[in-house]
Structures are given as structure tokens and as C-alpha cells.
Amino acid sequence: MKRRLLVSVIYIVMVCTSYGCSRESGEATKSASKAMSPHSVNSDTQKPASDVKTFVSIVSKQKLPGLDSKTIGAAFEEYRYFSSREWNETRNASGKVYVDFKGLLAGNSLALNSLKAGIARHGVEVKFVVDSSGQMFVGMVSKIEVMTDGSMKLIPVEGAKKIMEQIYDNKEIIF
Asked: The domain containing residue 104 runs over which residues?
């Protein structure tokens, strides 16, 4: 009898937990589907599934002042030293949109002292900012250190312009 009661309690807990998880993910999906129009920061319209990364598309089609030989997207896509590329966008309450590009460099560019420090790979993160008026600029460039334990460190770099020029000129970045 006690065993049957225990099994029943476990079953009820599992069902309640399962319902709670699915309800949370459903609410998260609803809030994630609300979009910000590229023209109006306070828009509450539904975003089509094909426009999930609206601002990524907008930023990648722009040209940077002084580096206007090609679009940002073309420069980052053509950079031969990236072994992987990832674009993401986030928004804050004040209306700024951040578009982050993360590119991991090929593993063979590591110096011996990096390997000794437990660094498995290097990479670059470029944070683009789109403010509420629609102005876009490079907010920060960081060096990515992927450690041998799988953790990742972002270290802001001095000389962001030099890193961007190396990407546009397809020259190897060595940290």
C-alpha cells in the first residue's frame, strides 16, 4: 500500500513538473516571437519566422566608415581564418540592439604560451550597437579564449580598428 502511494506521488510530481516546464517554454516562445521593427523600437507586432534575426541582416548589409570596400557580412564571411561563424542579436530596455558576431579562429594559430595557459582556441567577438534612432556602430571587439575545459573568456582588445582591418584585408589575426 505504501509503495503504491509512493508511486502515485512520484507520478503526480512528474506530471506537474512536466506541465510547468511546457508552460514556461510556451510563454517564453510567445514573448520571443514579439518583434521589434527595424524602423520602430517600440513595435509590438509579430515577427515572421523568416525574420528571426532582423537586425543581424541589417547590420551585415552595412558598410563601415573607412572600411567601405565591402559589406560587414561579406567581409566576415570571406575571412578565411574563421573556422566557425555565429551571429546573434539582443535588445535592452532602453531601445539599443546589440548584434554580436563570434568567429573562432583555426586552431593552428595558437602560440605555445597559449597552449600552456590552457587555451584551446582563440576567436574574435565584434559587438555592433544599433541605437533607438537607427544609428549603427562597432561598440567593442573582444578576444575569445576557449579553454581546454570548454569554458570561454571574452577579453576586450585595444586596437579594435586594427582587428577589423585584418578581417577586411583577410590577414591572419594572432593574439
From this structure: 49-168
